[in-house]
Amino acid sequence: MSARASGGRRVLVVGGGLAGIAAALDCAAAGASVTLVEVRRRLGGAAYSFERDGLALDNGQHVFLRCCRAYRALLARLGSEQLTFVQPRLEIPVLSPGHAPALLRRGSLPAPVHLALALARYPHLTRGERVGAARAALALMRLDPSDEALDAQRFGDWLARHGQGERAVAALWDLIALPTLNLPAAEASLALAAFVFRTGLLSGADAGDIGFHRGTLSDTIGVPAERALREAGVEVRLGWRAERLERSAGGVEVHGRGAREESASIDESASGEDASGGGESSAGGPLEPLVADATVLAVPHLRAARLLEPLLGGSAGAWRGLGSSPIVNLHVVYDRVVCELPFAAGVGTPVQYVFDRSDAAGVPAGCQYLAVSLSGAEREMAIGSGELRERYLPALGELFPLARGAKVEFFLATREHAATFRAGPGVGALRPGPQTAVPGLVLAGAWTATGWPATLEGAVLSGHAAADAALRGLGLDTPPADTALRARELAR
Q: pLDDT tens digits, residue range 35-50?
């Protein structure tokens, strides 16, 4: 990364998740000399895959919406968009023990009436609850998510003031709040909840159509990202752990160490064996410091706080207040097909969402792999694998009668202790923009001030915003929008 070779336009990206990938590609397209370092031996950050007993498993079920244009554009840029699928029309099968399957399906009318018929037929609410939910949705449309006063309020309190009881919240509002905010509606920030519902469900008829990954996350993100970065001229250094940042005459100097093998972050299986996963690697020997004219720090907020407190003091330390919210995923392989649906939501059951991931995982013919996603899973984090198995296998049997007589060939629980920041009241004031007080140092990550909760879309938007800020500091223009989006406004 010599100044002569790059004409004083060297960019260092620290972190190889979606934010770092997007930032590095933007900077390279603008003509900068880019190096990306990542502590793990792979790219993709919190969206990754691993192998277990010959199966290719994702750490979690990362879905997206049609309105997630930045994420979808990045996949097109990586050449892996064909490994995803977007519903032609929003359909959420809803299962509940002892009830016939229900279907929340949008109509062809403009928003917000595109959901009116689905709500009118929804069997898990009484007629009065359906009318009340419609009124609450209309009131939600009138809220401005950028209003700072909303960030101080709980979504659950707002719903209660608008006539939504516990039953309605559990049967309807939490179906959207839990997977998007990683918190139940009762605990979530009203500002973030208003953004999610307005953007994903109420802004356009097709905005909330759900997108899925047909391939594994590694095949869809990690592997093609490394190829695209190298083809763009980005130097990619894996197993490079940033440990200290210092100001220097040439910009920011980053000191690091080599990383050893990744430590286990995936929970133990039912047999008690440890599973290898996607946790951070332990530190090895020191490496030569890297100096750049602009540095994009694209790491989780707790790590960013630790790295930048010596430079920024209390302003960086305040990011710890964003907290964290966990996600637990259960991976179950049956000896036969027990579910005919590609995915489903659960009501009146501990199963929140379940996905058929048989094709991507490569399970043996005739078997089926169901992945159960549990968001806001603080209680489940404290439960051992054996207890999770005892609780969730019968619950799956209640939803899928064929599972009751099936043999479970494989069971694994994976836990992401700090899957996202905690999207509760007050987080808006803690989320920084890309600019910092250190010249040439910018921030990226789904935890920064994108307006979105911690999602795939928010991560990519933050990378675009950070690259835009870094490039402007170097006197370079953001490259043309062949990626479909630019996020310049986020850098202001």
A: 999 999 999 999 999 9
Report field, pTM of the whole predicted structure over 0.90: yes
pLDDT level of residue 414 (50, 70, 90 thresholds): very high
3-class SS letters over 197-248 = HHHHHHCCCCCCCEEEECCCHHHHHHHHHHHHHHHCCCEEEECEEEEEEEEE
3-45+217-264+276-321+424-491 — its CATH code?
Answer: 3.50.50.60
Q: How confident is the model at residue 202 (pLDDT cuts 50, 70, 90)?
A: confident
Q: Is the pLDDT confidence value at 272 over 80?
A: no
Measured distance CA(435)–CA(470) in Å, rounded: 9
Structure tokens at 492: 């202001």
Could you give phi then psi for residue 350, rounded to 5 degrees?
-70, -15
Rounded to 10 degrees, what is the CA torsion of 394, 398, 404, 409? -50
**3-7, 144-148, 218-222, 350-354: segment of lowest average pLDDT:** 3-7
Q: Which amino acid is at 248?
A: S
DSSP 170: I
Are the C-beta atoms of residues 477 and 471 closer than 8 Å to each other? yes
Residue spans per domain, the chain:
3-45+217-264+276-321+424-491, 107-205
At 490, the pLDDT band (50, 70, 90 cuts) reads: very low
| Residues 281 and 256: beta-carbon distance below 8 Å | no
Return the DSSP state at 54. T
290 contact partners, CB below 8 Å, separation of at least 6: 1, 12, 35, 37, 253, 254, 256
Three-state SS annotation for 238-298: ECEEEEEEEEECCEEEEEEEEEEEECCCECCECCCCCECCCCCEEEEEECCCEEECEEEEC
- In what helix (H) or strand (E) does residue 325 lie, and over which residues does it extend? strand 325-334
Q: What is the pLDDT of residue 482?
A: 44
- Taking alpha carbons only, the member of 129, 195, 203 closest to residue 166 is 129
